[in-house]
Design a protein that fits this description.
Helix content of chain A: under 10%
Order of helices and strands of chain A: EEEEEEEEEEE
Oligomer: heterodimer
Low-confidence stretches of chain A: none
Mean pLDDT of chain A: 97
Radius of gyration of chain B: 13 Å
Largest sheet of chain A: 7 strands, mixed
Number of strands of chain A: 11
Largest sheet of chain B: 7 strands, mixed
Mean pLDDT of chain B: 96
Helix content of chain B: under 10%
Strand content of chain B: over 45%
Shape of chain A: globular
Largest interface: A-B, 21 and 20 residues
Chain lengths: 107, 120
């Protein structure tokens, strides 16, 4: 199974900060990676797919990069609505797995 | 508008069974792979099972294989998850999800979830 490891597990930041979350796969997955945002009591929301493609309707302050084993999600200027938990997910092969999540809190 | 509405969750004793349903609307259901994803209280996301458009292929996470069965009824635009031999480890919110295209395994449409509680 491919293990997905996110870092950090939690992060405190301020509005307008630039934030980067990393995700490492235990083996190469090409660009078959998605990023999700989840707020308490809500279903996840897809932000990025194919490692760097912005899902329709997602603000351009979100961006993704990487390929192979190392990936990043960047929020260029944090907004109040961005405080949430973020997950990476590979879809290179079965079983599909998620990272453990990164909780982004207000500093 | 794409809508996915799960139902069937509830309280069940260890060793018991439950059948979850997901009613789909707003898209051509038989054009898409469909998926169940779960999330234990306070924990992360876990993919559970996928089923192909014509139900000719399905895949499961190891922890549920042999106990859970994913199925679909394209005439009723519905997805199901039959869960047998439930343990406390299966307690979670269960989400029905659909991919961004007919063959994508990332999910852009999600239901609101149905909660499964396993307790004696």
């Amino acid at each position: 199974d491919i293990q997905m490891t996110q870092s950090p597990s939690s992060l405190s930041a301020s509005v307008t900060d630039r934030v980067t979350i990393t995700c490492r796969a235990s083996q190469g997955i090409g660009s078959r990676l998605a990023w999700y945002q989840q707020k308490p009591g809500r279903a996840p929301k897809c932000l990025i797919y194919d490692a760097s493609s912005l899902q329709s309707g997602v603000p351009s302050r979100f961006s993704g990069s990487g390929s192979g084993t190392d990936f990043t999600l960047t929020i260029s200027s944090l907004q109040p609505e961005d405080f949430a938990t973020y997950y990476c997910q590979h879809y290179n092969a079965y079983p599909i797995t998620f990272g453990q999540g990164t909780r982004l809190d207000i500093k | 508008e794409v809508q996915l509405v799960e139902s069937g969750g509830g309280l069940v004793q260890p060793g018991g069974s439950l059948r979850l349903s997901c009613a789909a609307s707003g898209f051509t259901f038989n054009n898409y792979w469909m998926t169940w994803v779960r999330q234990a209280p306070g924990k992360g996301l876990e993919w559970v099972a996928n089923i192909k458009q014509d139900a000719s292929e399905n895949y499961y996470v190891d922890s549920v294989r042999g106990r859970f069965t994913i199925s679909r009824d394209n005439a009723r635009n519905s997805l199901y998850l039959q869960m047998n031999s439930l343990t406390t480890e299966d307690a979670a919110m269960y989400y029905c999800a659909r991919g961004g295209s007919d063959s994508s395994w990332y999910w852009i449409h999600w239901g609101q979830g149905t909660l499964v509680t396993v307790s004696s």
